[in-house]
Each structure stands twice: as structure tokens, then as C-alpha cells.
């Protein structure tokens, strides 16, 4: 269905790059001064909201750009908005200037020509970005091609309450533990992003050859590849919280469940989340994190600019500021956000590097060595099909 | 509407030029309120039948409905919508009627009436959160009892909230709809001639409740029928409460529609539109079913009255109704109090009944942004409630002077925004607004709120307006006052309390709007409600506590003023003290 959609959209007249040229950065700065950037970002986390407010204050100070955080319950709301605007023929002066986006939404917007760019690789701070070591040029196997700019990295970790259990070495160990401790583990309900990530992590844990996951799912024997995953989920579900008859609806909701002592184990896509939550009284200070052997999925968070944004120059200034050592170091601080940096420490000048060295990562945060290698995100088609199958099997079970 | 009749009444004194618009107000109002709903429905129906040019679809077809039918959760989701909607409405109505039957006219009833304003002003989402925390296995009730009474060191793995039968959802809806139906019943009681009917029936040997249900209930129900339909449609299609208290495997149909609308796979938007059409039909079918049940119950009731039996009676009836009223009020208020406690809590883990320590950290964190949010919320709510009040006065006065009574059909149209599910017409309305080139922003949001605010204001003001003793107008005319003088110098001042109450109801309705603010504002208009629901996704009880309290305060303040101002203004008029 989506494929035909893409074909039809591709046949529409292409939208040429209209707007400021990021290569001429002085002109961008000049145009940006006085602009208001409506940044659409998920508003469910108080920590990120506070960080975005800080970014707004800093770019107002340095560049005269005002940032308005439009807090979304779901990033797809922003995609809907841009789509509704194009339906109505509003090809300029759109309501959204910058959007915090993840793989699936980015793929949808890029496929449908709803994005401005390429701009990311022309940003002045791009020179510091760790292009080789961090997943910044590929988002869920879709090449970013400069249509979105990275600002944080993330990697799957499991949060556990050390008062009740010990770290577990593999996905199989998680299943064994859940069988022995029924009702003490759950994951957000797919298609929630984090819930789907748990399924993909489980798939990595049981699949024979992970290589097939990087190509579209229809190029592999989908049923055979995912069969061990469904065996796993089938065995796990009766031992989940509420016997799998109800699920938390988002990642942060799991924090509340751990704090309420309803569960002992939960998945997180941010290695620093647990430390930050402990500092905010959202988790008991006995919570720690672990990664199973063989590594966990990692990806980057990006910002993108819709094709019809009103303040493209201002949006690029914000995207560039997010890549600055100042913003990256602040995001890394677990007292603030605890997000991984996208910068390469080797490329930074000494005084910029010093900002990072002084940061205490927090009691629940693993060091980069302990985190281990980041596995690449599977091709989005895997996630789509696995989500759909999960919903058919478990999402409407009652 | 009957303009011919207005012409025939030539005796009406020629109105002053500045009010010559008055006869047009009812028509204007109906147009203003139904146009958005109509445009929105068309905007939703087109994609449902396969027409969505932005996705390159222009071929009409039934693919979207086929895709919907292939979703295995469709049957359960539809059943859930219908069952929770009907059950919540039936229970709310029964509890409300029992309370009125046992207590109306007593001192207890006056107290219940005073408690209504705070209960009504607690936004649905906030109430749902509070209730969820009260009854969850790790919630406050079990904390208070653990471990000394239950032996639980850890919360039990009970499926209490988000249960597949939707019982928690029904309970949450009942707790919020009983106050609403009570308010509507109190407003309508004036037209039922309750006291005399009860006196006659009781002199024939019926108990209080028996007499009430035989004589007053049929008259009262006729007056509150539309509000009951509103409750039914609302309970079937509510999104925020169902997402918090309702099940998720699958969710109710309306929650699922919103999820499809938000899916990155844009093709699902057609399926969502098809779902919205099904949801609309489901509401229509449920209303039809309710209507049939009304007729059946009326038949049974008549036979019951004819039978001449004198029951039911006994002290247990008033006790039961008071207990139910108390339970529903306590659930909402205690839930809110607990959210307030969460907003100042440091670590608070199970099974402690109280937090480890108190901290103002959450307030310090959210305080600054709250000020802006409250200003925006107040501006939109104040403006839309004021416009709605002026339109309502215009409609009612036109009815009075020209006999331009909004007919049955017109009334249904006015209630259309409350009965047509929001998910069925708001996405279409968003597209229509963009098409027409209207700027999204605070004005568009205010206009959209007006659509939902007006029916409540009209509903709230209509009955006291009509119940006003016309002989006072006649007396004023006899003393030389024109129709303007009667309106401005006698009627409006005398109706100060209901006018302010209607304004407060409208204000509270506007404060509580989520989907209209989000969709029509294009995400650029943030109110305490959009903020609270966005935070709800994160489940951070401290942040939710702060915003739910701010939201409640915003809605409560006008109610408090509506109570206080008439007392102050009429402190030297004994006859107006109880109005």
C-alpha cells in the first residue's frame, strides 16, 4: 500500500530546494535574526522539555532566534500537520519549522518529499560530528542525505531494580527470569516506538543471521526469520505484568511502574535515563542498567525541517546550535538529559573537550566500554511487519 | 423557526435599530455552529471513501472500509465503545435520579448542589488520573491498607485499571457524568412542578421516592433528554479518559482512530477516516437503541403506576443514594487531592501512604511556563464563553419577543457538536480551515471552542431564562418600560446568578477542550489541557499533578465567582438570596 503511495507521490512535480542556502552561513544568520522557530518535539518528558527551553534561551541570546516548543503527544502529529498543509496547497508559511524526528516518521516524510534540504552537512558544526563512529548518516537504514541533522545518540539498555534482581546476560536469560518472577516485567505496547524496539532487540537476540535484517523484509523469508521471535514472545507473554493483558503506553510510563514497585525490569533507549530519573525522584536509587551480551540497538535522534517551514534559516541555526559542544555537553549531563553525544572528541578543540571531561555520568549509567557495540537498526520494513503481526497476535487479544 | 408567525405578531413594538439584528440571531447561531460540523464531516467522509488528493488518491472506493474490516480488533473495539457508553450513561442516570428523588428540596440537596461546581470543573483527564492512582494495585487505597491489613509488600498483579471489560473506564465516566446530569436536572426541576406533585402523591400514601419516580421523573426526563444523549455520545467516543482508564488490547474505537491518525504510515489515515464514519454510525445506532429503551421503560413505568402498589420505601433508599453520591464525589476529589500531593512529592514508593518528603521542585520547574499557559487558556475560554453567552441571550430573547423558538430540528442541530463524535469531524475541519485560508491561531481556536461551548451555555441558561416569572415583565411594561428596558433593567439583573453560572460552565468546557485546540491550533496554541495530555503520555505523576491542578483552578475560578458575585450584588435583596 505504502509502496504505491510512494510511486504516486514521486510522480508529483518535485519540490526544488527553496529558501536559504546553508552553504552561505552568514546569510543564514542574518535571515534568522528575529525569526521565531516553532519546534515540534515530543513533550512527554519533563527533562527534554527543560532542555529545549534552555536551547531556546541560548539561541535567543546569541542569534536573536526565538524558539517556541510545540509539545507533541506523538511526533506523527507533526507529519499529519505538514500533510494537511500540503493537501490544502500551503507550500510556504507552514506551521512547523523544526521537528524532532525518528526513523519511521523520517522515512515517511522523506519518501513523500515533505522535507527541506539537504542542509545538515553544510552546518558549521558538522565538522565536529563523528561521522564514522556514530549512526548519524543512516536513520533506520534510510540514508539521511543531509535532510535531517543529528543531535543525540541513544542505545538500548535495560533498567533493573538492584534491590530485587541481578543483571541478565541475554534475552533468553530475561525470559527465564520472567518465568521465575511472573508479573515483574513488561514493555510499552507496540506500535509505541520503544515497545517495537524491544521486539527488534529480542529479534537480534534469537535470529540466526542478523545480516538479513538490514535489507527490506520482503527480500528475506520473513516468516522463517521471525519464527524464533514469535516463539520467544509467546513464551514470555503469560509471565508479563498483568499477564500481557495490558501494557504501559509509553517508555516513561515504565519509570512510574518501577517506582511503584509494580515491575523490576524495563527497557530504555537512553543509557542516562535511569540516572536522570533517580535525580528527579522518579526512580528509586537502587535502579541500575545493563546490556545483554552481543550488544544492543543504537540510533541517533535528529531534527528535520519541513519543506514549507516559515523560518528555515532560524531552524538551521537551532540545528547547528544543537551540534555545538556547549549543547552536546549539556545534553550528556545526567542531571539535565543524559543523552549520548554525536560529536567526535578527537575532532574537538581542547577547551571544548574539557566541557565533556568534567561530566559525572551518574550512578546508573554504564561507561562507553560497558555499553558495548551499538547494533544497527533493522530496515524499517521489519519493524512495520513485526508491529502489525504483534498487534494481530497480542494487541487485540481480549 | 417561523418568521411568518413573527410577522403575524404585529403587535410587537417596533424594536430599536440597534436590536433589529435580534431576529437573525437564532439563524446566525445555528449556522455558526453547524457549518463547522458539516464541513468537518465532509472532510472526514471523503478520505473514508478513498478521496485524499494529498496522498494521491482521487478514486472513490471502499478500500479504507475493507482495510478496517481486516483489523481483527474491530469487533471488540466497537463492542467496548457501545458497552462502556451505554453502561456509563445508564448508571450515571440512575444514580442522578436516585439522588434527586431522595433529596431534592432538602438541606442535604443544597449541600450537594454547592459541591457541584468544583466537581464539574475538574477536567475529565485530571479526574481520570486521580481515579487511576486511587484504585490501581499500586494506588493509594492499597497503599493505605498495606502491608498491615493486606500483607502486600509489593503491589499485587491485578488488572484493575485498563481492564478488558472497561469497568474502570465506566467508573471514571460515571464519577464525572453524575455531577453534569445533576446540574442539568436541578436546572430543569423548576419546570416539573415538583413540590405539588410530590405533595399530592404522598398524600395518597406513596413513599417519597415512590412518589417522585411516579410523578416527577417522567416530566424531568423529558427536560434532560438531550443532555442524556450528550452523555451517551460523549461516553462512547471520549479519547483522553479512555486512553487513561480504558483497556488497550484493543482500545475503544475512538482511541484507536486517533492512533491511526497519528501513525507514521500515512495510508492509515484513510482507515482512520473509515473508522470515524463507523464510530458515527455506532453513536447513531446507540442513540436509537436508547430511544427504544425509553419507550419500553415508559410502558413498564405506566403499568407500574397503574398497579397502584405503593413501594418502594424505606430508609435504605436515601442512604444508598447518598452513599453513591458521596462515592462518586470522593473518587474525583480524593483523586485530585492525591495529584496535588504528587505535585509536591519527593520519592514516594509502594507501600508508603505518604511521600518520603515534600519538595516544591516540580512547581519550580513548571511554574514559569504555567503562567503563559494559563493566560492563553483564560483568554480563549473567557472570549468563547462570553460570545456564547451573548448569542444565547440573543436566541432566548428572540424566542421571547418574536416567538422564534428554536424548533426541535434546530435544537438537534445545536447539540450536533456534542453528539457527533469529535474524532469524526475535527480532522476534516482542520483540513477545511486550511483550505479556506483561515489562519490557525488563537482566534481560530476560540471559534472552534465556541462550537462546543455554546450548547452548554444555552443548555445551562435556557431553563432559568424561561422559568423567569413573566408577570414581572408585564409589571415593568405597565410602569412604562420598553422591551429593552425589561431585558436590561429587570430580566438580566434578576438572572445574574444563572448568567454567571452559564458563563462559568462555558469557561470550564473551553478549558477542558483537547482535540479542538490541538487540531485547529495547528499545535501552536498551547493551553494547560494540551500540555497536561501531552505530559500524560509520559506518565510523570508530578508533572501531571501540577498541570491537572492548574487546569482545575482555571475552570474553578469562574464557578467561585458565579457563586460569590450574586450574593454580593444582592446582599440587600432577600428575595434574590436563593435565586
Question: Can you describe this structure?
Answer:
The complex is a heterodimer of chains A (398) and B (579). Chain A starts with a helix and ends with a helix. Chain A is globular. In chain A, helix 2 (25-32) crosses helix 11, helix 7 (193-206) packs across helix 8 and helix 7 (193-206) crosses helix 15 (380-395). In chain A, strands 1, 2, 3, 6, 10 and 11 form a six-stranded mixed β-sheet that branches. Residues 1-17 of chain A have low confidence and may be disordered. Chain A has 15 helices and eleven strands. Chain A folds into two domains: 2-150 and 301-361, D-Maltodextrin-Binding Protein, domain 2; 157-298 and 375-395, D-Maltodextrin-Binding Protein, domain 2 (3-Layer(aba) Sandwich), CATH 3.40.190.10. Chain A is an alpha/beta fold. Chain B is mainly alpha-helical and 579 residues long. Chain B has two domains: 15-46 and 359-579, MetI-like fold; 65-306 and 315-340, MetI-like (MetI-like fold). Chain B is built from 24 helices and no strands. Chain B has helices spanning 3-8, 25-48, 63-70, 74-103, 107-121, 124-135, 140-145, 167-189, 194-203, 208-237, 240-245, 253-261, 268-307, 316-343, 361-402, 408-419, 422-435, 442-467, 470-478, 483-494, 496-512, 515-520, 528-536, 541-569. The two termini of chain B are 31 Å apart. At the A-B interface, helix 1, strand 1, helix 3, strand 2 and helix 4 of A face helix 15, helix 17, helix 23 and helix 24 of B.
